[in-house]
Specification:
Dna Ligase, domain 1; 35 helices; single chain; alpha/beta; binds magnesium ion; eight-stranded parallel barrel; D-amino Acid Aminotransferase, Chain A, domain 1; 5 domains; binds adenosine-5'-diphosphate; Glucose Oxidase, domain 1; 31 strands
Length: 877
Amino acid sequence: NKFVYIFGNNETEGKNSMKDLLGGKGANLAEMSNLGIPVPVGFTITTGVCTLYLKNGQYPPGLEEHIDNAIKQLESTTKKNFGDLKNPLLLSVRSGARVSMPGMMDTVLNLGLNDDSVVGLATKTGNERFAYDSYRRFLTMFANVVLDIDHEKFESALSSKKKDKCVKQDNDLEVEDLKELVEKFKTIIKDETGKDFPQDAREQLQMAIDAVFGSWNNQRAITYRKLNGIPGEWGTAVNVQSMVYGNMGENSGTGVAFTRDPATGEKRFFGEYLINAQGEDVVAGIRTPQPIKALKNTMPVVYDQLVDIYMKLEDHFKDMQDIEFTIEKGKLFMLQTRTGKRTAAAAIKIATEMVEEGLIDKDTALLRVEPEQIDRLLHPNIDPTSTYEVMATGLPASPGAAVGEVVFTAEHAEEMAKNGEKTILVRAETSPEDIGGMNAAEGILTVRGGMTSHAAVVARGMGKPCVAGCGEITIDMKEKIFNVGDYTVKEGNMISIDGSTGNVILGEVDLILPGVTDELETILKWADEVRTLKVRTNADTPHDAEVARDFGAEGIGLCRTEHMFFGEDRIPAVREMIMAEDIESRKMALKKLLPMQREDFIGIFKAMEGFPVTIRLLDPPLHEFLPVHEEVMDKLRELESSDTSQKEMDRVKKIGERIEYLKEINPMLGHRGCRLGITYPEIYEMQAQAIIEAACELSKEGMKIVPEIMIPLVSHVKELEFVKKHVTTVVESVMEEMGIKLDYLVGTMIELPRAALTADQIAKEAEFFSFGTNDLTQTTFGFSRDDAGKFLPSYLESGILEDDPFAVLDQDGVGQLVKIGIEKGRATRPDIKIGICGEHGGEPKSIKFGHNVGLNYVSCSPFRVPIARLAAAHAVL
Ligand code: ADP
Ligand code: MG
Ligand code: MG
C-alpha cells in the first residue's frame, strides 16, 4: 500500500511505465529525473488514492503520514521548510491523469505562503517584488481552484489596478501595488466564502489536494473525457512539487516547447517563453511570448542545455515531446514532458520521418496516426485561385480554413451548432470552459496568446482551424462587435479564417479539398502491407469511382442504381414505367431506360477496371420517383381553370391516382427492394441485361470486368431464388447472344434480421453477402433512421446509448447478427465473399469489428477510403 512516490532527487521511485498509477505527468517527471534531467523535487500521490477518495469520501488510513514523510524529504533536499516563516518551502500542487488532459485539471502554485512567510521570502531572496508577485498569484489560484471563486473577480481587480497605474502588463506593477492587490484578494476571499484565507500551510496543502482529486469530476473534465473516450474510473494523480521561480527578474522566465513543429511536423525546435513570468502565463496568453530562438541570444548557456535536453527526451521517448520549463536566476528546470499533440499533417510527417531516422518501426508509425485524423487532412483549404479581403493576420495556430458566422461566446457557438449553423468563435483568449463551444465552432480566432496557447493546442487536437494572437482585433463584448483596422464586424457576420497562414478574412471564401500528400501516401502504402481486409467504395457515378480509386479503393462494394433513375433525362421514362397499366407497356418504357443504364454501367466498369463492381438492383419504393401528391392536385386545379384538353386532364388525374395507390404508411418497410423484383420482374431483368451487356461490351475490348449483381432487402431464401432465376436467365441469354463467357456473381444484401438468422439457407443461392448495416440497424433496433434525429440525441445524452448506432456499429446487437450471418453463410458456402457497406464501412471501430469477425472487405464513401485502409491496418496491429 504505497500511496506516495518521490521524484526529482536521487531517490526517485517512479518511472515512465507507471502511468496508470502515477498519471502521465508524475510518471514522466520521475522518468526525467531518472535520466538525470534537472527536475524540482516532489512527490506523486497515486491515482489509486483518487479512486478510493471519490468512492468512499475519505482517504485511506496512513496517507497523511506518508505525505508528511515525503514533505520532510523535500525539505531536506531543498534546505527550506514547509510552513516556515523565514525560509519557506513553497509547493505546486498539480493534477495528472494517465493521459494528458490539457487545461482540464487545475494547478496551484506557490502554496505555503501566508502573511508572515511572504515577508520571510522577501527578506531571504532580497526580492520583495517577487515575493508579493508570488503571493498574489497563489491567492488567485487557490481561490479559483480550491475555493471555487470566479477567476474574473481577481482578474478585474488586477485590471483596474493596472488601469489606475496606467500600465499595460502585470510585470509593470510595483511592490506597493502588489501588496495592495494581496489585501484586496484576501478581502474578496473573505467576502465570497465568509472565512479568512487559510494561513496554515499544511491546511492549504490538504485543501489543494482535495480540490485536485475533486476536480476529476468537474464539468470541464467530464466534457473532455466524453469527447475523448476516457473512462471515468481512471482518476487522477496529484503531484506535489517544490517551486522553482521564473518570476525572479530578468534572468528568470518560463516557457513551453515542442521537439518538432506540432502544426506541420517539420523537424525543428519550436516553442515560446516569457521572461520574468510564472506558470501558465505563456499558455494563458497573458503577454505575447518570444519565440524560443530568441533565448539563444539572451541566455545562450540555458538555450544549449535546453536543446540537449529536448533531444535526449525525444530520443528516449521516441516521439515528439511537449515540454515545460522554468529558468530560475539562470538555472534551468524541466517541469513536464509529454507526447505532444499535433495536427493530422504533422502526425503523418513525424511518423514517416521517424521511421526514416530509425527511431521507430513502420508498425509503430502506423499506430501514431489515427484513422480519423486523415479525414481532417482531406478537409478544405482556401481555393488559391480565389480572391478575398484580408482584414488582419494572426498566428497560424492550427491549419485548414473555416467559414462561419461570428459568435463571441462558447455557449452561442453550441446553440448555433444545434441548429446546424456554422460559426467562428472569436475570443480574447480561450480557457477550458470554452471546450464545448470550440468543438461546436468551425474555427477559432483569438486576440491574445501564442502558438502554444490554450486555443492553439486544443484546436490542433480537435483538427479545427485556428488563428491565435491576432492582436489587431479589439472585441467589444457589450456591443457584440469586433474592430480591426477600418472594419467593424458584428455578431452573425460571415468571416473566414485560414489557420495555415493566420489570415482573418471578411466574408465567405471558396474552399477546395487538398489531395493526398507523399507522406500520407507512404503511410497508406505501409497500411496496405499490413492489412488483410480489403477496402472498396460506395460509388454511383464514374466520377466517384475514379476519386475512390485514386484513394486506393479496390472495387465497388455498393453501386446504387436508383440514383441513375433520378437523372433528369430518365425521369419521364421511369414515370412511364411506373404508370404502365400492363406488362407490355411497362416493357416498352423499360426499353427506353435500357440503353441509358447500359451507358451508366459502362462508365462505372471502366473507372473500376480490373476490380469487382457490386451493383445493387433497384431498391427504393416506386412512389419516390413520382411527384408529390399535393403538387399534382394543385396542377390539376390549375388545369381545370384553364382550357386544357380533357385528355391532358385525364393524364394528370391518373398520375394523382397512381400516387395515391402507391402511397405507403411505412415505405421503409414497404414495397421496395426485391419485393419490387418479385412483383415487377421485368424491372430487374432490364437492369441485369444492362449490366451484362455493358460488361460483355467492355470485355470484348479486352478489359477485365468483374460484375457482381446484388439483390436488396431479401429476408427469405425463396425471394432470392425467385429473383435470381429471372436475373440469371437474362444474363445467360445475353452472354450467349454476344458470344462471351464472363465470370459474374449474384449475391444479396443481408440487411434484415431474418436474413442474418437464415444466412445458411440464403447462402445456397447467394454467391456473396454484403451486410447493409444501415437497414440492418434500422430493423434490429426498430429505429427509423430518418426519424431518429428526434430521439437519438436524448439517448446519447442520458447514456442509454454510447454511440449513434447509425454511425458506429452496435456490436452487441447488430454486430451479433453480422456474426451469425457470417458463420451460417460460411457453413453452407465456405468461400463465400462477405463485405459490409453502409456508413459503418468507413468507421474505424466498426472496421476493427469487421476485421475480427472475418469480413473480406468493407465498403465506404470515396473520401473515407484512406481512413478505412489505415483502420484496417490498425485492426491487425
Ligand atoms: P497543466 O496540466 O495544465 O499543464 P501543470 O501542472 O503543468 O498544468 O502546471 C501549470 C504550470 O505551472 C506549468 O506550465 C508549469 O510551468 C507551472 N508549474 C508547475 N509546477 C511548478 C513548479 N514546481 N515550479 C514552477 N512552476 C511550476
Ligand atoms: Mg503542464
Ligand atoms: Mg438497404
